[in-house]
Amino acid sequence: MYALAGRAAGLPVSDPVPTFTAHDGTILAYRVTGRGEPLVVLPGGPMRAGEYLGDLGGLADHRTLHILDLRGSGSSAVPADPESCRCDRQVADVESFRIHLGLGTADVLAHSAGATLALLYAIRHPSRIRSLALVTPSLRAVRAEFDPAELGEALAARPEQPWTAAAASAIASLTAGTEADWAALAPLSYGRWDDVARADEAAGKHQIPPGAGALYYAPGGLDPAATRRALGQLTAPVLVLAGELDWQPLPRLAREFAAEFPQGVFAEVPGGGHSPWLDDPAEFTRLVAAFLAMIPAPTVPPAPVPPATLPAAPVPEVR
Fold first, then answer.
1. 147-170 pLDDT, tens per residue?
2. 274 by DSSP, 3-state: which?
3. Distance, C-alpha 122 to centroid of its chain
4. CA 239/CA 115 separation, integer angstroms
5. What is the reported pLDDT for 16?
6. Other CB atoms within 10 A of residue 255 CB
7. Where are the domains of the chain?
8. pLDDT in tens, 181-203
9. CA distance linking residue 103 with residue 192, whole number of Å
10. What are the distances in angstroms from CA 262 to CA 102, 106, 176, 308?
11. Does CATH number 3.30.1360.140 belong to domain 19-147+212-293?
12. This prediction's pTM
C-alpha cells in the first residue's frame, strides 16, 4: 500500500480550480488555459501535477488546454481506493473528463507516462478519439523491459559536458544490475542542463505524490502484446513527437512506434529533450499545431470507424 498526498496546485488561469466527479465519487481537478478548440491534456510523471506543463511552450495560443490532474495528484482528491490509481483503471477518469467537457470526440495530447493512459483510453474508446498527440511517450504500454543501453546511446549523442562522467558511471551501474545514482542521469532528460531544466527537475520532486509510480504501473495494468496488436485498429491520426536528445524514448524508437499506427505521424524537436517545449518552445508549438491543423472537423454525431487494413508505407513526418 502506498500513501498518496494530493495537494493544492497553483493554477493562475483557472480560478477557482474547476472540478468534476469521477465514476467512483473522487473529485478530479483540471486547469484551463488558452484559446481555440479544446485539447485534452494528460500529464506525465507518472501522476505529476499538471501545472508543470504551463502553456506548453505557447501551444495555448492555438488551442484551449484542459489539463487534468490525475487522481491523487495536484488539486485532485486522493481516492478512497489507492489501487484505483493504476493506469488502466484511470481510463474511466478520462472518459468522465470527456463527458464533463461536453466533447463528442476529443483531441488528446499526452506527455511521457501520460501516453500510457492515453493509449489505453484510445484502445478502449476508439470512436471518442479525434486525434492523439503523444509527446516523448513512455513505451511501457507496448514493451515489457527497459534497456539501459538506450541511456548510453543517448549520452553518446551529446558533446562532453561537466555532468557526463557521473552519468556514464550511473549507466554502467544500471547495466551491471547494481544500484545507480539516478540524480546523475537527470541532465539526460533535457536538451540543455540550464537553470530552466534544473528548476523543472526540482519542481518534479514535489509535484509527484510518493508511491505514484508504483501505483500507476502496478502489476496487472498493462498487457504490452495485446496493446501493440490493438494499435493497428486505431484509425485516428496519431502524432509521435520526440526530442532529438531524449532517451525515453530515443528518436529512432519513437519513429518505429509511430509506424505502428495506421495514421501515425512522426516529428522531432531538434536539440529537444524529454520536455521539448522547454528546449525550443517555438518549434514544439509549430510541430504540434501543424499536426492539429491537419485534423478534419468532426462529424455530428461521431460514428465508430471500422478497422482499416493499410499497406506498409514510410512513416510521414511533420516538418
1. 889 999 999 999 999 999 999 999
2. coil
3. 13
4. 11
5. 78
6. 18
7. 19-147+212-293
8. 889 999 999 999 999 999 999 99
9. 38
10. 27, 18, 38, 8
11. no
12. 0.89
